[in-house]
Specification:
single chain, about 575 residues, alpha/beta, ABC transporter transmembrane region fold, Rossmann fold, 2 domains, 6-stranded mixed beta sheet, 4-stranded antiparallel beta sheet, 10 strands
């Protein structure tokens, strides 16, 4: 049984289903024990009369009726108990995914995808087993054992004591070994997680592996992790098999003792009054008792695995949601895109130094702004703050005069459109990738955005056009095509603030000019921010914000910076030289 804030609530939520199923289960357990009693009456009746009597026919008909009732009852408790466990799995998986979408970037820097997938698949399945088969085996084991022992005690209390002692000892043994089983299950789950991490990473980086001819090395590394999982799994299975073998051996000894004692009683029927029919009934009850013993043993196994998985899931669900709406929340009117930073300072949660150091600037609504700087100067960090990926101190960053920390997360992110540096694409159609911001995709919007991002002609060259299914992370298209599809996705959203994080670096200068020209046309009156390394990307912007080592080095138009910033002039000079060497056009 699983309890705690993450799991106990589901017993209450699905209490009617569980209770109805348990009542039916207990009823089935009681009525099925009528069959041995009816069989005894048939045997004893046959000992007294040779022809089939009316009592025998009645007993047979009763057995048939009971069989029908048991069949219907088993369907009902399976539907209610197992059905509730499946619904719990559904709700818990939704809860886990919802929580996953709210966790900060810091969490995902520490946790790997393979480990998280193990939570959503293997661990969740182990928890479901606790709610379904676990509850069944616990209730069925206890009630059926109690009913059978009661009837056995009524028939012959001496034999029942002999049978009960080893059964009680076995039950205590199952409880004692639960921790050892849980430990082995955790080790197996960890090995599976390690293998999942390794496999997922290798599949994602298969191109790099082939390029560096590392297939053999990675194969041996995979084999090592696979062997580790195999060994952990076999160790767990061996432990379970050993327990089951010991249990079966003990039960067989008890059965032998019962048959010997019962046969002696039947032989001495004159003294004991114990008939052959009663011995048959008693043995039937004892064999009925075997299932509760196995069920309780299986319950211990299921519960041990479930508790180990529940601990892992609880650790995930209890992970703190760091980036969330402030207690002093304000709902501003429609945001227009004016952005202002006042002595903005930022350090990553796991960092030991500031990556942004007292930056101050203002971007007016409707301006097209470039953010320029060398690698590591803080450009992408600034974007993360505009998207509220991380928390900052109040009074440092404003949108339309409102402190970004006091605005609802949803409103901020609805206002901002973002083209990430890695140009992540989903494994679905190009249409669904571009129309990702909408619940219902408008094909006209998708086509228009594709034309503005200069990807339309490329898409139409594909066999299935906009219905082309992209591979994982967009692996089936080139780097430049991925960038332009990502740009189209952001343009289709038509946000008040559009941020492009180094989003034209993989296209040629002609395509870059076409994209920027289109943006100048369609983004009039809306704020557009370009983060770039190339001067050609930002030189026609309204203003350029130049960063250096996390500080604001200069701000102004291209012409202004050419006059006032030595760093900017040096960057222009270096890029001109690079183009001359490569034979390209001089910016």
């Amino acid at each position: 049984m699983l309890f705690g804030k993450n799991f106990g609530k589901y017993y209450i939520k699905f209490l009617p289903s569980f209770m109805f199923g348990i009542i039916v289960l207990v009823g089935v357990d009681w009525i099925q024990l009528e069959i041995p009693s009816l069989v005894r009456s048939i045997i004893d009746e046959l000992d007294q009369v040779s022809p089939i009597s009316e009592n025998i026919i009645t007993a047979i008909l009763n057995i048939m009726v009971i069989a029908v009732i048991i069949t219907i009852g088993r369907f009902i408790w399976r539907y209610t108990i197992f059905g509730a466990s499946r619904r719990i799995e559904f709700h818990l998986r939704n809860e886990m995914f919802d929580h996953a979408t709210k966790l900060s970037q810091s969490y995902y820097k520490e946790e790997k995808v393979g480990g998280l997938m193990t939570l959503f698949i293997n661990d969740l399945e182990a928890v479901r087993m606790s709610y379904g088969p676990g509850i069944l085996m616990l209730v069925d084991g206890i009630t059926l054992a109690a009913f059978a022992l009661y009837r056995m005690f009524v028939l012959d209390w001496r034999m029942t004591i002999v049978a009960a002692i080893p059964m009680v000892l076995l039950t205590f043994a199952m409880v004692m070994i639960r921790k050892a089983m849980s430990k082995r299950f955790k080790a197996r789950q960890q090995a599976f997680e390690d293998l999942s991490d390794f496999t997922q990473e290798n599949f994602s980086g298969i191109t790099v592996i082939k390029a560096f001819v590392r297939e053999i090395k990675e194969f041996f590394a995979f084999r090592e992790k696979n062997e580790n999982l195999y060994n952990k799994h076999i160790a767990f299975i061996k432990y379970m098999v050993g327990i089951n073998v010991a249990l079966a051996a003990a039960l067989n000894i008890v059965i032998l003792v019962i048959i010997v004692i019962g046969s002696f009683n039947v032989i001495n029927i004159a003294q004991t009054g114990f008939t052959g029919g009663q011995l048959t009934e008693y043995i039937a009850y004892f064999f009925t008792l075997l299932w509760p013993t196995m069920a309780l043993s299986r319950f211990v196994q299921i519960n041990s695995q479930a508790k180990a998985s529940a601990e892992r899931i609880s650790s995930f669900l209890d992970a703190e949601i760091e980036v969330k709406d402030s207690a002093e929340l304000i709902l501003a009117p429609e945001l227009k895109g004016e952005i202002e930073a006042k002595e903005l300072v930022f350090r990553y949660p796991d960092g030991d130094s500031d990556v942004l150091k007292g930056i101050s600037f203002k971007i007016n609504a409707g301006e097209m702004v470039g953010i320029l700087g060398r690698t590591g100067s803080g450009k992408s960090s600034l974007v993360d703050l505009l998207l509220r990926i991380y928390n900052i101190e109040k009074g440092m960053l404003y949108i339309d005069g409102h402190d970004i920390m006091e605005l609802p997360l949803k409103q901020v992110r609805d206002t901002v459109g973002y083209v990430p540096q890695d140009n992540f694409l989903f494994s679905t159609t190009i249409t669904e990738n571009i129309g990702f911001a909408y619940k219902s995709i408008d094909e006209d919007i998708v086509i228009r955005a594709a034309k503005l991002s200069d990807i339309y002609d490329n898409v139409m060259e594909f066999k299935d056009g906009f219905n082309t299914i992209l591979g994982e992370r967009g692996v089936t298209v080139s780097g430049g095509q991925k960038q332009r599809i990502s740009i189209a996705r952001a343009l289709a959203k038509n946000p008040e603030v559009l941020i492009l994080d180094d989003s034209v670096s993989a296209v040629d200068t002609k395509t870059e000019d076409a994209i920027i020209t289109n943006l100048h046309e369609i983004r009039k009156g809306k704020t557009t921010i370009f983060i770039a390394h190339r001067i050609s990307t930002v030189k026609k912007m309204d203003k350029i914000i130049l960063l250096e080592n996390g500080k604001l080095s200069a701000i102004g138009s291209h012409d202004e910076l050419m006059k006032t910033s030595e760093l900017y002039r040096d960057m222009v000079k270096r890029q001109r030289l690079e183009k001359l060497v490569s034979g390209g056009d001089v910016a």
